[in-house]
Amino acid sequence: MKTSVIGYPRIGELRELKFATEKYFKGDITQKDLKNITCDLRKKHWKIQSNNKIDFIPSNDFSLYDNFLDTAVLLNVIPKVYKQLQLNPLDEYFAMARGYQGEKGDVKALAMKKWFNTNYHYIVPKIEDDTKISLVGTKPFDEYLEASNLGISTKPVIIGAFTFLKLSKFTGKKTAKDFISDIIKAYSDIIKKFNELGAKWIQFDEPALVLDLNKEDINMFNKIYEGILSNKNNIKVLLQTYFGDIRDCYAKTIELDFDGIGLDFIEGKKTLELIKTLGFPKDKVLFAGIINGKNIWKNNYNKTLSLIKELKKYCKEVVLSTSCSLLHVPYTLKNEEKLDEKYKKYFSFAEEKLRELYELKKILSSNNEKDISEFIKNKKIFEEPRDCSNYDVKFKIESLIEDDFNRYPNFNEREKIQKHEFKFPILPTTTIGSFPQTEEVKKNRSNYKKGNISLEKYKEFNKKQISECINLQEKIGIDVLVHGEFERNDMVEYFGENLEGFIITEKAWVQSYGTRCVKPPIIWGDVYRLRPITVDYSVYAQSLTKKYVKGMLTGPVTILNWSFPREDISLKESAFQIALAIREEVLDLESNGIKIIQIDEAALREKLPLRKKDWNSEYLDWAIPAFRLTHSGVKPTTQIHTHMCYSEFSDIIKYIDEMDADVITFEASRSDLTIIDTLKENGFKTEVGPGVYDIHSPRIPSASEIKEIILEILKKIPKEKLWINPDCGLKTREYKEVVPSLENLVSAVKEIRRSL
Predict the structure, then answer these.
(1) pLDDT tens digits for 663-676?
(2) 413-755 is a CATH 3.30.450.40 domain
């Protein structure tokens, strides 16, 4: 039996890629320096997999920013606006990812969206009517040869042609079907080149097959691969799916001339049933996704062995594989030096998952698997009781009643009360919460965690930062202020550190997008709050100004979705536990005079089932109530805000309205304000703040640009319902970008107010 990995984390063990790329952005290193660093990283990643005896090691899973963007460049899908900048290829690539503002022009970045149901963000290519899809790049071939020169045979990985067309944006009259012949030719050329290089296998990633597919989608998929596979010659082609099952197209897929098919047995709830019902061709290899690529708990060998034995009844050859790319889990447990072994023995990060594949292969190769030491050790872990329950928490959950999820009076009455209470000007301005995390801010936090400074000194520094932040916002002229979140490393990790039931790691970083990495907490046990978390800093900030300062919290669904969840209880129960803890914080903020409280649910859509038919029963029926539970106990004069970003919200807009917040801010700038039409069409009752500029790009929008955007929004959103804000928090930006951008935002609003 052989083993396979779909993809490996590319940021490096200690985020080497992040730091190198950011140095390049600042001009501190050259392209050659960046190339040398990335070559070293790839070499290390391949050798780690080789040392763990992985049979199918991926290449071209590495990226400087995003694999989907890499595929666009490979296929000549580069909008004219970027070509006109006449930058070198690397800077043109980064201009598409981050935007460009300089002597050669001023161009926004391409849209960025969540990658299916993960916290990873991909860059959305734009395909113009005159785009000529063709193979023009060399990256996959260069990296294959790099590995070959190290003596490592790899399986090149390419985003599949169907998924590429399905997830790209078409800007003109043409649609995906108009580019089918071109993309067949481009992918046939890719196969031809790898045949020439002597590659044995090539992996085409087609996660879009787990979505709701209609007949037109399935016909397009079939047509594409009938064309591509007719040109495969000697190379074997693996169709790799993940993030669910492919129930809509399984029957058609197994008829196509693939040599291997990769199926997900972790999130693919119907995958085994499909194989049992419809069979699996004897002439194809099943790449069975049995190692969870999205969570960090150890694999239960006993259960996995039972599954593999069942699969062998239907499949001639089975390869053990990860369920998806290991991009979505931390790099290695080796650096978690402070984590007690009583916890660590339950966890498996990317490098450890390679070991799990090896051990399962070893066990399955033996005559008596239950005598193998690795099996015995693993079995013992799952037989041991894990003390992680709290009776009081469970009692509170069981005691919840319907009124705990309803806020009174209704929204329309509250809106009238709050208009009278706050007397905000038309188009009130605010920000989403965080301000830049400077090196001094990071150093202060690091010194405190290392014990180099006292808690008193740590807080004194933070309060000085808060004071300066309040003064800056007042000087700019923003209406509703924030304290800046200088005490917070991350919007989820911070609450994980301050709530019971979480484990915080040292270096378990995961890539969110580009150079942005997060360190998700691990939910170990029942979650509850011991003491106030944000009250001190919020009250201090409010004491510095006569303007209102928002209390800033992260919502229960986002905390859950951006943590590594437990697998021994339901997501619903975990969400309600977190919601009760946040509810206590909300009520404490209110009792201490904070009149506006923002409870961010940036990740609300993230764990929404990928098929619409599964939405209510599996997710929204508890996700929306979990949010409502956090704020249902506040007074009508307390204004509740929330924030959502980088997902497609149009199809769940009615559910978002049911969250019963008073104000919702959305990311909208990178998605070309498409959500505005949806809000209007659905008669959205909640007041809204669509983001008027993109904070994930270093470019500074002009006042006239922002004014034009606001005027466009006002055509569809009543001025009484509209707030003006950036599209997300400002922590990743520098003050030299933040200050002029906010000044331009306020200037644009003032000009429009005069005209209104």
Answers:
(1) 999 877 666 667 78
(2) no
